[in-house]
Specification:
7-stranded mixed sheet; Aspartate Aminotransferase, domain 1; alpha/beta; 2 domains; about 350 residues; Aspartate Aminotransferase, domain 2; 4-stranded antiparallel sheet; 14 helices
């Protein structure tokens, strides 16, 4: 992995460290970057993200897990209920060991089917009193899919009419916006609060931002301390993400166009299926015919002999003999012509 010279999917391992080094060199050596989140580097970054998202305020949080649990807790407290609603493949459900329940006493209503997007009819079938509806844009576990704009408006209107708060898992909001052809603020403006990742699309080292109304973010800062997330210095998280905010976000439409071109080439390879087709974001899934160990070993052979990294280890799918890999085609992927990507995948699948 580390000896690869070119990366089709994901980001180069040293990219975040390089950006952090650049950011550190640009800092005033006489100034203290921040003290428990208070300082120009962090505060200016928070203000900039809030403005991009059209929100009153924002705060840096060490992890998205922490940011989202805090947001859901505050929304439920405001409405005197403990029930949250989200998709069955929501990160909180799959990857956080029910932290929302153990730490905050929240209960989950799973909405819709795990292999498709939430639909308005799914929301209309909810009978529990819900405090907050969490929507993930794009929906990672089903290939980075996005609802159409009118469907999104219908779902957010459903929540507004019932005084249900709206929270956006916008870890990849920068990747989602080009599909809609709308400013980030218009997309984020459909929601009360938004979480964004500082290391996914922005290429930082770690961390997240929670944005929303000034009063709610002030309350969230208290909860950040309760969670142990008010670190003595938060500036590395903000400083490492700032270059991505300036240089990568404006290029997301370019990354989406390239992802679609690569996906079109991959669909011509026997044993390869793209989900969704065409991709709606630079992140999409590829189903490969074969066993996971064999596909992994062939991909590693390519990495050793051609110094090319294609994808993370495949995951066995629900259909026998078919595996799934997730592709994220960012800046490094622009070095690959669609035809070369197809040739490399053909070598992996054909053996």
């Amino acid at each position: 992995m580390w000896g690869c010279e070119r990366w089709l999917s994901g980001r180069r391992p040293v990219a975040a460290a390089h950006r952090l080094r650049q950011a550190a060199d640009a800092l005033d050596p006489e100034a203290r970057p921040d003290h428990y989140g208070e300082g120009a580097v962090v505060e200016d970054f928070e203000r900039r993200v809030a403005e991009l998202l059209g929100m009153e305020a924002a705060m840096v949080v060490p992890s998205g897990t922490m940011a989202q649990q805090i947001a859901l807790r505050l929304h439920c407290d405001q409405r005197a209920t403990s029930t949250v609603a989200f998709h069955p493949t929501c990160h909180l459900e799959l990857h956080e060991h029910a932290g929302y329940a153990h730490l905050h006493g929240l209960k989950a209503e799973l909405v819709g089917d795990r292999d498709r997007l939430i639909e308005l009819a799914d929301l209309e079938r909810l009978h529990a009193r819900v405090g907050v509806l969490l929507l993930e844009l794009p929906q990672r576990e089903i290939g980075g899919q996005l609802p159409e704009w009118d469907d999104l408006l219908a779902q957010t209107s459903w929540a507004r009419e019932r005084d249900v708060a709206l929270h956006l898992d916008g870890a990849r909001i920068w990747e989602a916006a080009p599909y809609y052809g709308r400013p980030h603020a218009e997309l984020a403006g459909l929601f009360d609060t938004v979480y964004v990742s500082l290391y996914k699309g922005l290429g930082g080292v770690a961390g997240s931002v929670l944005a929303g109304p000034a009063q709610l973010i002030a309350q969230a800062r208290v909860w950040r301390r309760r969670h142990g997330g008010e670190l003595s210095s938060l500036f590395p998280l903000a400083a490492a993400a700032l270059p991505g905010l300036e240089t990568l976000v404006p290029r997301m439409p370019e990354f989406l166009d390239h992802a679609r071109a690569v996906a079109a080439a991959l669909t011509e390879v026997p044993g390869v299926t793209v989900i969704p087709n065409p991709p709606q974001t630079p992140m999409f899934h590829v189903h490969l015919r074969g066993e996971p160990d064999e596909l992994r070993d062939r991909a590693l052979d390519l990495a050793r002999h051609r110094r090319v990294w294609l994808f993370a280890p495949p995951v066995r799918g629900l259909v026998a003999g078919v595996c799934t890999v997730e592709l994220y085609l960012g800046e490094p992927a622009l070095e690959f012509a669609p035809s070369e990507a197809a040739e490399l995948f053909s070598a992996v699948v054909a053996g």
